[in-house]
UniProtKB/TrEMBL annotation:
Name of this protein: Peptidase M56 BlaR1
Domain DUF4825: 342-433
Keyword Lipid metabolism included in the entry's annotation: no
Residue intervals of the Peptidase M56 domain: 7-287
Length: 473
């Protein structure tokens, strides 16, 4: 659950930056038809829904790129192994305000890393919030449905009832238009035209889906603001569609209908049905009165710009080269091993998972695989460490698999030298394959006990050199 929580948090941070960018872009589209602004929110939805994306040089997220983000299509502001890091940090990603926010550090003598506890508590609070909001939405939907059961059919899926005070579209598979009793003959055509425009565009599905995404990312206030603005653009674009269909001469009558219905309407909750008199009626009336039918070339250029922006917001920026990283993030390594971190986390006991996690984090990473945690066998001998990775056979070329197996063998021997009482090391890659090394096998390979190689950095370098020679031969 913690891995899922960290994935959702990274998606939420990325979508938050995209949402802010869309808010700024909306200012450029302010005098254009609102359908273009409405289209821009697609980029935010994709970021909230899909954890991975393609990488491109034209990405518009260059300024909010985390320095150590993954090359596997993910932007990781919060590392997935943050619970195992000795000194965990949160990269806020803003180049002009580049800052690594420090988090609670691991205590060497503690049995549990404080960051692991915080991540676990955060995931628990997140799941609870999702459950509460989802239950609340279902209850509200059921209550509204019970009110509409007595509605009377007027014509063509248009129903009338005295249980509501504002018109709206309701339903998923077969959406219906519900209108309150007492509407005037002059108001009804505008209301019906507006709600039919929602149905033709499938807004009755889009809005609940957007609300469901908000439930998943409920802790991010930027996204709730985005949801309100998206709803506003949705309603304004429908207003403009009615203007285009019925002609500019109905603007004043349509605006009067908006005002009249909004004065009598109840306040709908977030995620409610597509009500005619909702989403900032004052701004909608102003927009209706100022509406002018755009020329063809304006429509083409605006749509082209909108497509470019959505594509740019959806693409991930290319990872920075190691030479471009700030000096504070650069680490001196020897053949991919962080010697300083290895010596800091050298331990007598396999049960010290903070130290074990620190050792694994200081070693070369396999190509194309994602860490999925570790498990320790400490109840009885033989004591062991299992390191899990995510991946399948068809995800990797044979060359990558062979290279990763070499990395696993080297890392296994390194762990056997640095963890005094461990008896075996195992690396697993989903259900594709696993690599194991026992202490006896390592001693046979190197001709003796491997633990003396962890006495100091010089000895560790000597072990790395020997392992490299074995690989080359």
């Amino acid at each position: 659950m913690t891995n899922l929580f960290i994935t959702v948090v990274n998606m939420s941070i990325t979508a938050g930056y995209v949402a802010i960018a869309v808010m700024l872009a909306r200012l450029l589209f302010k005098r254009l038809p609102r359908r273009f602004s409405y289209f821009l929110w697609l980029a935010v939805a994709l970021r909230l829904l899909v954890p991975v994306s393609f990488t491109a040089g034209f990405s518009l997220l260059q300024a909010v790129r985390p320095l150590n983000h993954s090359q596997a299509g993910r932007l990781e502001y919060v590392p997935h192994d943050i619970g195992m890091q000795k000194n965990p940090v949160l990269d806020i990603g803003v180049d002009s305000l580049r800052q690594l926010v420090p988090l609670p550090s691991a205590t060497p003598l503690a049995s549990v890393n404080p960051m692991q506890i915080l991540v676990w508590l955060g995931s628990l609070i997140w799941v609870t919030g999702v459950g509460v909001l989802l239950l609340y939405g279902m209850i509200q939907y059921a209550r509204l449905w019970s009110k509409l059961r007595t509605a009377t059919l007027v014509q063509d899926r248009i129903f009338e009832t005295d249980q509501i005070r504002t018109p709206f579209v309701f339903g998923f598979l077969k959406p219906r238009i519900y209108i309150p009793t007492g509407l005037s003959e002059e108001e009804l055509p505008y209301i019906i035209a507006h709600e039919q425009a929602h149905i033709k565009r499938r807004d009755y599905l889009i809005k609940p889906a957007a609300y469901l995404l908000m439930i998943i990312h409920w802790y991010n206030p930027v996204l709730w603001i985005s949801y309100r603005l998206m709803s506003k653009d949705m309603e304004m674009s429908c207003d403009e569609r009615v203007m285009k269909r019925m002609g500019s001469e109905v603007k004043r009558s349509y605006a009067s209908t908006l005002l009249s219905v909004s004065m009598n309407s109840s306040k709908w909750q977030m995620g409610g049905p597509l009500a005619f008199g909702e989403s900032d009626v004052k701004a909608r009336i102003t927009n209706v009165l100022a509406y002018r039918k755009p020329s063809s070339w304006v429509i083409v250029l605006s749509m082209l710009a909108a497509v470019v922006l959505v594509t740019g917001f959806t693409a991930n920026p290319k990872p920075l080269q190691q030479s471009m990283l700030p000096a504070a993030l650069e680490k001196e390594t020897y053949a991919g091993y962080d010697l300083e971190q290895l010596m800091e986390n050298k331990t007598l006991y396999v049960g010290n998972h903070v130290k074990v996690g620190g050792l694994i984090g200081a070693m070369p990473k396999p190509v194309g695989l994602e860490g999925k945690g570790i498990s320790l066998q400490t109840k009885s001998q033989p004591y062991g460490v299992t390191v899990n990775y995510d991946g399948t056979d068809d995800m990797q070329a044979e060359e990558e698999m062979a290279a990763n197996k070499n990395v696993f063998y080297r890392n296994a021997i390194m762990l056997l030298s640095l963890i005094d009482n461990v008896d075996s090391i195992t690396f697993t890659v989903s259900h594709a394959y696993s690599v194991s090394m026992t202490r006896g096998e390592a001693e046979f390979l190197l001709g003796g006990d491997v633990r003396p190689y962890a006495d100091d950095e010089s000895s560790v370098k000597n072990l790395i050199d020997r392992l490299t020679q074995f690989q080359n031969t």
